[in-house]
Amino acid sequence: EQEVMAWRAEKEVAVQGPANFKPILQFMEAGIPDYLMGTVTAAGYVTPTTIQSQSWPIALSGADMQGIARTGSGKTLAFVLPSIIHIMAQPDLRPGDGPVAVILAPTRELAKQVQEVAEQFGKPCGVNTVAVYGGADKRAQIGALERGAHIVVACPGRLLDLIQSGRTNLHRTTFLILDEADRMLDMGFEPQIRKIVGQIRQDRQTLMFSATWPKEIQKLASDFMKTPTQIFIGNQE
Ligand code: ADP
Ligand code: MG
What we know:
The structure is a single chain. The protein is of the alpha/beta class. It has one domain (2-233): P-loop containing nucleotide triphosphate hydrolases (Rossmann fold, 3-Layer(aba) Sandwich). It has ten helices and eight strands. It has helices spanning 2-11, 34-42, 50-60, 75-88, 108-122, 138-147, 156-164, 181-186, 190-198, 215-224, and strands at 13-16, 65-68, 101-104, 129-132, 151-154, 175-178, 205-210, 229-233. The radius of gyration is 17 Å and the shape is globular. The structure holds adenosine-5'-diphosphate (ADP) and magnesium ion. Residues 75-76, 179 line the site of magnesium ion.
């Protein structure tokens, strides 16, 4: 207990909410399955970053959570590993199934970056990821969706377009992540985000990440999540 408090003080971590679990300080303690540990080791990662230490036990417990931490703090893996573990515990995709995990991101560049990380860790264990974003050929994205994607990393406008034209569906989606939620709102994606989230079952698990914590984000969080646990890193409260 005191160790946890000392760690949180040193790392400037504040946790609020029902799933206030202690951080995991070593990859070995995290309960990360063997099918992922090989890739973690191959990537040369020695210890989890602060946001990873504190997010994994909460996300892996099935709780909704939001992480507020600056850029470069390792948020991608904080949600990509729990996404893959969630997917590996589900029955595999059948033809016509949409994604099990949906990750929303504000820009094409970011969607591609997240897709690369999801593929790096997912591919070795058979988890397929596709990125969908505007300003690029739709046919390739549709083809990848038809072949079966466990994870879709998407900019909101293009994903909504593909749903509305029947190219994919969110009937099987049980894991939702909003990455850089503050930037998505700044870019005016709130209507599209609300339409997408409205199609996903209520008993999903939802994770939200952002660098800042303005009123608009707090509203979105309370609309999309059930008593989320909040992680603030670096005096962002
Ligand atoms: P954020 O989304 O918070 O801006 P990223 O997820 O993009 O941060 O990660 C920033 C960098 O840190 C990336 O280059 C990534 O490869 C690296 N990284 C992530 N996790 C670890 C770790 N546990 N140990 C070392 N480097 C890491
Ligand atoms: Mg990021």
